[in-house]
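Morning!

This is the sequence you dropped in the shared folder:
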Amino acid sequence: MNEELKNILEKVHTLYQKYGIKSVTMDDIAKELGISKKTLYNHVKDKRELVEKISEMVIEMAKSHGNQIKEKD
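The structure's back. Tokens below.
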């Protein structure tokens, strides 16, 4: 995953936590990130794929956190 996509996912994740997935549109995301929708769609096909990528990112973060805790024990 490239850094630009990672930054997008992290910022969108924050928006989803604050406002909810259903209420945040791709227009809202592009505006909030200061990018065009075309740029956003260069990274993801649609909102469904965006949600999937964010879910994968959150799962990986949780696994990483769990492994760090495991290593401390």
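Headline: The CA atoms of residues 13 and 25 lie 13 Å apart.

More detail when I'm at my desk.
O.
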